[in-house]
Amino acid sequence: MNKIFTTQAEAANYCRQLMEGQKHQRQFDFVRRITIQHGVASTDEVNLPSEGAFEQVGYNIQYTTQQDGTAPFFVRFKSQGDGQGQSNDLLPIQAIATPGAVIAGQTAPRYGFRPFWHFYPKDDRLTIEWDGRQLVEDIVMDIVFTGYVYPDGPKAGA
Amino acid sequence: MRYLMSPGDRTFEAFLGDMRNFTDPGYLESVKRIPRDSVRSMEYLITHSLDNNNRNSEKSVLTRRGWTFISTTIGVLYTGSAALSPLVKIRQDEVANGSLSGGPKAAFPPENPLTLGWLDCQSSFGPGNSNPNPNILTEQRAFFRFFGESASIETQARLAAADASARTVYILVTGWEVRNG
After folding, report:
1. Yes or no, beta carbons of A92 and B19 under 8 Å apart
2. pLDDT (tens digit, 9 = 90+) per residue, A26-61?
3. Is residue B176 within 8 Å of B40, Cβ to Cβ?
4. Helices (H), strands (E): how many in chain B?
Protein backbone atom coordinates (compact mmCIF):
# COMPACT_ATOMS: atom_id res chain seq x y z
CA MET A 1 0.00 0.00 0.00
CA ASN A 2 1.63 3.22 -1.10
CA LYS A 3 -1.03 5.73 -0.26
CA ILE A 4 -0.87 8.31 2.49
CA PHE A 5 -4.18 9.03 4.13
CA THR A 6 -4.69 12.38 5.72
CA THR A 7 -8.06 11.60 7.20
CA GLN A 8 -9.69 8.57 8.68
CA ALA A 9 -12.54 8.93 6.23
CA GLU A 10 -10.13 8.72 3.36
CA ALA A 11 -8.63 5.53 4.71
CA ALA A 12 -12.05 4.04 5.35
CA ASN A 13 -13.17 4.91 1.85
CA TYR A 14 -10.11 3.29 0.34
CA CYS A 15 -10.68 0.11 2.31
CA ARG A 16 -14.29 0.05 1.21
CA GLN A 17 -13.24 0.32 -2.42
CA LEU A 18 -10.77 -2.52 -1.95
CA MET A 19 -13.49 -4.69 -0.52
CA GLU A 20 -15.89 -3.84 -3.31
CA GLY A 21 -13.11 -4.42 -5.84
CA GLN A 22 -13.11 -8.05 -4.83
CA LYS A 23 -16.24 -8.35 -6.91
CA HIS A 24 -14.17 -7.58 -9.97
CA GLN A 25 -10.95 -9.43 -9.25
CA ARG A 26 -9.62 -11.55 -6.48
CA GLN A 27 -6.80 -13.98 -6.05
CA PHE A 28 -7.93 -17.53 -6.45
CA ASP A 29 -6.39 -20.99 -6.12
CA PHE A 30 -8.02 -24.23 -7.14
CA VAL A 31 -6.81 -27.81 -7.38
CA ARG A 32 -7.66 -30.47 -9.93
CA ARG A 33 -6.79 -34.14 -9.72
CA ILE A 34 -6.15 -36.43 -12.68
CA THR A 35 -5.37 -40.12 -12.70
CA ILE A 36 -2.75 -41.06 -15.27
CA GLN A 37 -3.53 -44.63 -16.23
CA HIS A 38 -0.65 -46.96 -16.96
CA GLY A 39 -0.38 -48.07 -20.56
CA VAL A 40 -2.86 -45.43 -21.72
CA ALA A 41 -2.72 -42.08 -23.50
CA SER A 42 -5.83 -39.95 -23.23
CA THR A 43 -7.23 -36.54 -22.32
CA ASP A 44 -9.08 -35.08 -19.36
CA GLU A 45 -11.14 -31.95 -19.34
CA VAL A 46 -10.50 -29.74 -16.35
CA ASN A 47 -13.25 -27.60 -14.89
CA LEU A 48 -12.20 -23.99 -14.59
CA PRO A 49 -13.78 -21.61 -12.06
CA SER A 50 -17.36 -21.08 -13.13
CA GLU A 51 -17.61 -17.73 -11.43
CA GLY A 52 -15.87 -15.85 -14.20
CA ALA A 53 -12.75 -15.45 -16.30
CA PHE A 54 -9.56 -16.85 -14.80
CA GLU A 55 -6.13 -15.36 -15.20
CA GLN A 56 -3.63 -18.10 -14.40
CA VAL A 57 -0.26 -16.83 -13.24
CA GLY A 58 1.23 -20.20 -12.40
CA TYR A 59 0.79 -23.58 -10.79
CA ASN A 60 2.12 -26.25 -8.48
CA ILE A 61 2.12 -29.86 -9.67
CA GLN A 62 2.41 -32.87 -7.40
CA TYR A 63 2.16 -36.53 -8.29
CA THR A 64 2.58 -39.98 -6.91
CA THR A 65 5.28 -42.24 -8.25
CA GLN A 66 5.51 -45.89 -9.13
CA GLN A 67 6.95 -48.26 -6.55
CA ASP A 68 10.42 -47.85 -8.06
CA GLY A 69 10.20 -44.11 -7.61
CA THR A 70 9.86 -43.26 -11.30
CA ALA A 71 7.06 -41.38 -13.00
CA PRO A 72 7.62 -41.46 -16.76
CA PHE A 73 4.48 -39.76 -18.00
CA PHE A 74 3.87 -36.72 -20.17
CA VAL A 75 1.26 -33.95 -20.25
CA ARG A 76 0.15 -31.10 -22.44
CA PHE A 77 -2.27 -28.27 -21.71
CA LYS A 78 -4.76 -26.95 -24.26
CA SER A 79 -7.52 -24.45 -23.84
CA GLN A 80 -10.58 -23.95 -26.00
CA GLY A 81 -9.26 -20.66 -27.26
CA ASP A 82 -5.81 -22.07 -27.96
CA GLY A 83 -6.25 -25.28 -29.81
CA GLN A 84 -2.58 -25.57 -30.57
CA GLY A 85 -1.75 -25.92 -26.93
CA GLN A 86 0.54 -24.23 -24.46
CA SER A 87 3.52 -26.28 -25.57
CA ASN A 88 4.65 -27.81 -28.85
CA ASP A 89 4.71 -31.35 -27.49
CA LEU A 90 3.70 -33.51 -24.55
CA LEU A 91 6.08 -32.59 -21.75
CA PRO A 92 7.77 -34.93 -19.26
CA ILE A 93 6.18 -34.18 -15.94
CA GLN A 94 9.54 -33.72 -14.26
CA ALA A 95 10.26 -30.75 -16.52
CA ILE A 96 7.26 -28.76 -15.33
CA ALA A 97 6.47 -30.03 -11.86
CA THR A 98 7.57 -27.90 -8.97
CA PRO A 99 10.64 -28.97 -7.03
CA GLY A 100 10.43 -31.67 -4.44
CA ALA A 101 11.78 -34.93 -3.14
CA VAL A 102 10.88 -38.37 -4.41
CA ILE A 103 9.15 -40.88 -2.17
CA ALA A 104 8.56 -44.11 -4.03
CA GLY A 105 4.91 -44.98 -4.35
CA GLN A 106 3.71 -41.82 -2.67
CA THR A 107 3.08 -38.19 -3.37
CA ALA A 108 6.22 -36.33 -2.42
CA PRO A 109 5.93 -32.85 -0.99
CA ARG A 110 6.48 -30.32 -3.73
CA TYR A 111 7.00 -26.77 -2.78
CA GLY A 112 6.89 -23.59 -4.70
CA PHE A 113 5.19 -22.27 -7.73
CA ARG A 114 5.94 -22.34 -11.43
CA PRO A 115 5.06 -19.11 -13.26
CA PHE A 116 3.02 -19.75 -16.37
CA TRP A 117 0.59 -17.13 -17.55
CA HIS A 118 -2.56 -17.88 -19.46
CA PHE A 119 -5.91 -16.15 -19.59
CA TYR A 120 -9.08 -18.26 -19.71
CA PRO A 121 -12.30 -16.35 -20.45
CA LYS A 122 -15.41 -17.41 -18.60
CA ASP A 123 -16.75 -20.75 -19.85
CA ASP A 124 -13.42 -21.61 -21.43
CA ARG A 125 -12.33 -25.22 -21.13
CA LEU A 126 -8.93 -26.63 -20.31
CA THR A 127 -7.96 -30.01 -21.70
CA ILE A 128 -4.97 -31.92 -20.40
CA GLU A 129 -3.55 -34.48 -22.78
CA TRP A 130 -1.55 -37.13 -20.99
CA ASP A 131 0.52 -40.13 -21.99
CA GLY A 132 1.04 -42.89 -19.45
CA ARG A 133 2.11 -45.58 -21.88
CA GLN A 134 5.49 -45.97 -20.19
CA LEU A 135 3.89 -46.50 -16.80
CA VAL A 136 3.28 -49.88 -15.21
CA GLU A 137 1.16 -48.43 -12.39
CA ASP A 138 -1.42 -45.64 -12.28
CA ILE A 139 -0.25 -42.27 -11.05
CA VAL A 140 -2.32 -39.51 -9.47
CA MET A 141 -1.46 -35.95 -10.37
CA ASP A 142 -2.71 -32.86 -8.53
CA ILE A 143 -2.39 -29.44 -10.11
CA VAL A 144 -2.95 -26.32 -8.03
CA PHE A 145 -3.69 -23.39 -10.29
CA THR A 146 -2.96 -19.93 -8.89
CA GLY A 147 -4.26 -16.75 -10.35
CA TYR A 148 -7.10 -14.25 -10.35
CA VAL A 149 -10.76 -14.78 -11.04
CA TYR A 150 -12.85 -12.03 -12.66
CA PRO A 151 -16.54 -12.47 -12.01
CA ASP A 152 -17.39 -9.86 -14.62
CA GLY A 153 -14.62 -10.81 -17.04
CA PRO A 154 -15.00 -11.55 -20.75
CA LYS A 155 -16.62 -14.76 -21.85
CA ALA A 156 -15.29 -17.29 -24.30
CA GLY A 157 -15.97 -16.19 -27.84
CA ALA A 158 -16.40 -12.54 -26.82
CA MET B 1 7.45 -5.60 -18.65
CA ARG B 2 6.02 -4.00 -21.74
CA TYR B 3 5.26 -6.40 -24.53
CA LEU B 4 5.38 -5.97 -28.26
CA MET B 5 2.02 -4.38 -28.89
CA SER B 6 1.05 -1.78 -31.46
CA PRO B 7 1.85 1.81 -30.48
CA GLY B 8 -1.09 3.38 -28.83
CA ASP B 9 -2.64 0.02 -28.03
CA ARG B 10 -3.83 0.65 -24.53
CA THR B 11 -5.48 -2.68 -23.96
CA PHE B 12 -2.47 -4.58 -22.71
CA GLU B 13 -0.89 -1.54 -21.08
CA ALA B 14 -4.16 -1.05 -19.29
CA PHE B 15 -4.03 -4.67 -18.27
CA LEU B 16 -0.56 -4.43 -16.80
CA GLY B 17 -0.85 -1.01 -15.23
CA ASP B 18 -4.41 -0.86 -14.15
CA MET B 19 -5.55 -4.37 -13.55
CA ARG B 20 -4.63 -4.47 -9.93
CA ASN B 21 -5.73 -1.00 -9.07
CA PHE B 22 -9.06 -1.69 -7.48
CA THR B 23 -9.95 1.96 -7.33
CA ASP B 24 -9.45 2.68 -11.02
CA PRO B 25 -12.82 3.64 -12.51
CA GLY B 26 -11.87 2.13 -15.85
CA TYR B 27 -10.89 -1.13 -14.19
CA LEU B 28 -13.81 -3.17 -15.33
CA GLU B 29 -13.50 -1.87 -18.84
CA SER B 30 -9.85 -2.90 -18.80
CA VAL B 31 -10.82 -6.40 -17.78
CA LYS B 32 -13.19 -6.70 -20.69
CA ARG B 33 -10.51 -5.65 -23.13
CA ILE B 34 -7.81 -8.13 -22.02
CA PRO B 35 -6.15 -9.30 -25.23
CA ARG B 36 -6.20 -12.85 -24.03
CA ASP B 37 -5.14 -14.28 -27.33
CA SER B 38 -2.31 -11.82 -27.95
CA VAL B 39 0.15 -12.56 -25.17
CA ARG B 40 0.58 -15.78 -23.27
CA SER B 41 3.10 -18.23 -21.93
CA MET B 42 4.42 -20.88 -24.27
CA GLU B 43 7.08 -23.55 -24.12
CA TYR B 44 9.00 -25.65 -26.60
CA LEU B 45 10.33 -29.12 -25.93
CA ILE B 46 13.06 -30.76 -27.95
CA THR B 47 13.73 -34.43 -27.26
CA HIS B 48 16.95 -36.26 -28.11
CA SER B 49 17.33 -40.03 -27.98
CA LEU B 50 20.94 -41.09 -27.56
CA ASP B 51 22.64 -44.46 -27.33
CA ASN B 52 25.94 -46.02 -28.29
CA ASN B 53 24.90 -46.21 -31.94
CA ASN B 54 23.60 -42.66 -31.95
CA ARG B 55 25.87 -40.68 -29.72
CA ASN B 56 25.20 -37.28 -31.22
CA SER B 57 21.83 -35.86 -32.19
CA GLU B 58 20.67 -32.63 -33.79
CA LYS B 59 17.12 -31.38 -33.76
CA SER B 60 15.16 -28.21 -34.23
CA VAL B 61 11.70 -26.82 -33.71
CA LEU B 62 10.07 -23.84 -35.37
CA THR B 63 8.29 -21.22 -33.34
CA ARG B 64 4.67 -20.64 -34.25
CA ARG B 65 3.78 -18.73 -37.37
CA GLY B 66 2.23 -15.41 -36.51
CA TRP B 67 3.89 -15.12 -33.09
CA THR B 68 7.13 -13.77 -31.66
CA PHE B 69 8.55 -16.00 -28.95
CA ILE B 70 10.56 -14.48 -26.11
CA SER B 71 12.26 -17.14 -24.07
CA THR B 72 12.75 -16.51 -20.38
CA THR B 73 14.01 -19.79 -18.93
CA ILE B 74 15.53 -23.08 -20.03
CA GLY B 75 15.68 -26.45 -18.35
CA VAL B 76 17.32 -29.72 -19.30
CA LEU B 77 16.68 -33.15 -17.85
CA TYR B 78 17.87 -36.54 -18.92
CA THR B 79 17.33 -40.18 -18.16
CA GLY B 80 19.93 -42.58 -16.88
CA SER B 81 22.60 -42.41 -14.25
CA ALA B 82 23.65 -39.00 -13.11
CA ALA B 83 27.26 -40.14 -12.91
CA LEU B 84 27.88 -39.08 -16.49
CA SER B 85 26.09 -36.03 -17.77
CA PRO B 86 25.19 -35.58 -21.41
CA LEU B 87 26.14 -32.34 -23.14
CA VAL B 88 24.10 -29.94 -25.22
CA LYS B 89 24.43 -26.97 -27.53
CA ILE B 90 21.75 -24.45 -28.43
CA ARG B 91 21.55 -22.45 -31.61
CA GLN B 92 19.09 -20.02 -33.12
CA ASP B 93 18.31 -19.36 -36.73
CA GLU B 94 15.89 -16.77 -38.00
CA VAL B 95 14.00 -17.47 -41.18
CA ALA B 96 11.21 -15.49 -42.74
CA ASN B 97 7.87 -17.20 -43.09
CA GLY B 98 9.33 -20.59 -42.36
CA SER B 99 11.41 -20.58 -45.52
CA LEU B 100 14.73 -22.33 -45.25
CA SER B 101 15.80 -21.47 -48.77
CA GLY B 102 17.45 -18.18 -47.96
CA GLY B 103 14.63 -15.74 -48.52
CA PRO B 104 14.36 -12.36 -46.77
CA LYS B 105 15.43 -12.59 -43.15
CA ALA B 106 13.25 -11.67 -40.20
CA ALA B 107 13.78 -8.42 -38.37
CA PHE B 108 16.05 -9.93 -35.72
CA PRO B 109 19.58 -10.60 -36.95
CA PRO B 110 20.39 -14.29 -37.05
CA GLU B 111 22.95 -14.76 -34.30
CA ASN B 112 24.09 -18.21 -33.61
CA PRO B 113 25.18 -20.07 -31.68
CA LEU B 114 23.54 -19.18 -28.38
CA THR B 115 26.06 -21.28 -26.54
CA LEU B 116 29.79 -21.63 -27.04
CA GLY B 117 31.05 -25.17 -26.93
CA TRP B 118 29.27 -28.04 -25.28
CA LEU B 119 27.39 -27.41 -22.06
CA ASP B 120 27.43 -30.07 -19.39
CA CYS B 121 23.82 -30.65 -18.39
CA GLN B 122 24.60 -31.02 -14.72
CA SER B 123 26.63 -27.90 -14.26
CA SER B 124 25.03 -25.61 -16.83
CA PHE B 125 21.37 -26.00 -16.09
CA GLY B 126 19.07 -26.20 -13.14
CA PRO B 127 19.83 -28.58 -10.30
CA GLY B 128 18.22 -31.98 -10.34
CA ASN B 129 17.70 -35.09 -8.31
CA SER B 130 19.76 -37.93 -9.63
CA ASN B 131 17.31 -40.53 -8.44
CA PRO B 132 14.60 -41.69 -10.81
CA ASN B 133 14.30 -41.77 -14.52
CA PRO B 134 14.42 -39.13 -15.83
CA ASN B 135 16.46 -37.10 -13.42
CA ILE B 136 14.18 -34.64 -11.82
CA LEU B 137 14.73 -31.05 -12.76
CA THR B 138 14.18 -28.81 -9.81
CA GLU B 139 14.65 -25.46 -11.46
CA GLN B 140 14.98 -23.89 -14.80
CA ARG B 141 17.45 -21.07 -15.29
CA ALA B 142 17.21 -17.73 -17.04
CA PHE B 143 17.57 -17.84 -20.80
CA PHE B 144 16.44 -14.66 -22.48
CA ARG B 145 16.19 -14.53 -26.24
CA PHE B 146 13.94 -13.18 -28.97
CA PHE B 147 12.83 -15.67 -31.58
CA GLY B 148 10.98 -14.16 -34.51
CA GLU B 149 8.05 -15.78 -36.23
CA SER B 150 8.89 -19.26 -37.46
CA ALA B 151 12.40 -18.98 -36.08
CA SER B 152 14.31 -22.15 -35.53
CA ILE B 153 15.37 -23.25 -32.06
CA GLU B 154 18.11 -25.77 -32.78
CA THR B 155 19.70 -28.05 -30.26
CA GLN B 156 22.41 -30.68 -30.25
CA ALA B 157 22.91 -33.32 -27.60
CA ARG B 158 25.62 -35.87 -27.20
CA LEU B 159 26.82 -38.45 -24.73
CA ALA B 160 29.95 -37.85 -22.70
CA ALA B 161 32.97 -39.62 -24.16
CA ALA B 162 32.98 -42.35 -21.53
CA ASP B 163 29.21 -42.85 -21.58
CA ALA B 164 27.86 -45.93 -23.37
CA SER B 165 24.37 -45.82 -21.95
CA ALA B 166 21.08 -45.01 -23.64
CA ARG B 167 19.60 -41.71 -22.60
CA THR B 168 16.77 -39.38 -23.49
CA VAL B 169 17.58 -35.69 -23.16
CA TYR B 170 14.71 -33.22 -22.84
CA ILE B 171 15.42 -29.55 -23.48
CA LEU B 172 12.55 -27.26 -22.47
CA VAL B 173 12.53 -23.59 -23.41
CA THR B 174 9.80 -21.56 -21.69
CA GLY B 175 8.79 -18.01 -22.39
CA TRP B 176 6.15 -15.67 -23.76
CA GLU B 177 4.66 -15.51 -27.18
CA VAL B 178 3.26 -12.29 -28.56
CA ARG B 179 1.01 -12.15 -31.56
CA ASN B 180 2.53 -10.34 -34.50
CA GLY B 181 0.74 -7.63 -36.41
Report:
1. no
2. 889 999 999 999 999 999 998 898 888 888 999 998
3. yes
4. 3, 10
